[in-house]
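Quick one, T. Sequence first:
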Amino acid sequence: MFQQIISIAIFGIVILAIVSEKVHRSVAAVAGAVALVLFRVLTVDSAVSYIDFNTIGVLIGMMLFVAVVKNSGIFEYIAIRAAKLTKGNPWYIMVIFVLITAALSAFLDNVTTVLLIGPMTIAITRILKLNPVPFLITQILASNIGGTATLIGDPPNIMIGSASGLTFIDFILHNGLVIVLVLIVSILCFRFIYGRGLQVSPESMRAMMRLDENKAIKDPSLMRKSVIMILLVAVGFILHDSIGIESCVVALTSAAVMLLIGKQDTEDIISDVEWPTIIFFIGLFIVVGGMVESGVIGKLADLLISATEGHMVIAMLIILWASALLSSVLDNIPFVATLIPLILTMENSGLDVTPLWWAVSLGACLGGNGTLIGASANVVLSGISGKNGYPITFMQYLKTGFPMMLLSIIVATIYLLVKYA
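Structure tokens:
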């Protein structure tokens, strides 16, 4: 009983520290992990056993891979080329940038995507003499929607895939359809919210058409290698289960190959990895492991089973909406890290928990769109906007983001009910 109280207290303190932002989330997670060992809830060996090295490997591998690829200028080339295809029509630019953001977020982490697309969006809207904020808000929403579609698009999905054994193909086949529906509904809403107010002069259109996308290519040789490797990585993730290798092996192999053939400064590439995020994950896995070790997660699983009387559809809807609403105001990674062992415990009771994995994935990833602090991509892109003189306020985003999040969860609810009810 003492160990259960200690593990709950440490978990609660870590979450409060993360939410308050008084302490860096990496420091909070590591401090919590150390406290569990000091209070003898976990031994060093058991603490290490709770670290999901597959998730860590995928994150490090993809961060290294993208750090090399982005030096080619391929993402800037795509953005300018796409904008020119619209002939300077602002509504079409908004739509095509939403689609690019969603597509890139499915195969890169969404923070990297917005770091690449955001500055280019601001540059193009300045040429067109438009306020970039509506464009950036739609891109925040698109990054979280697109990231939900695949195993590697959003950290919660990486964690879920590693714990459940669900493959890249499983995520595409299951989440892909509902995400396409959510994206279509979102674009229709964007038309209603923003479309009519996007007007530009013919002179501004001509100025944008004079942009030369070829000048964005910093390293033609690296760009060709990047295109080939991106295709090979996609194939690797699709086939990883069939050929019997972990998703982290695909990610780390792609990183190693790009580091070898990319001919970039290795120290610069390694420094581009978000090491605080990696350390945060490691600490968090151990903190949640403390509640597993002490039996807290087992009791929560029993409580959920008894409350829903083992009815998976009811449990699925509870988890979907709880994940979405809590992920709007809390970092979805700690929440998902807590739910994973709970669902695994329910699975060990003989229940088919497949619907619950998809409920967590859709709820946590789409729920991040609810507020400006709901996901890392939201914070990063709003920061970029503010630094360029276009601040996005919490309430300004909330008016669009929260209703759009609720709408996406309604679509997800209908989809899950049709599939599992």
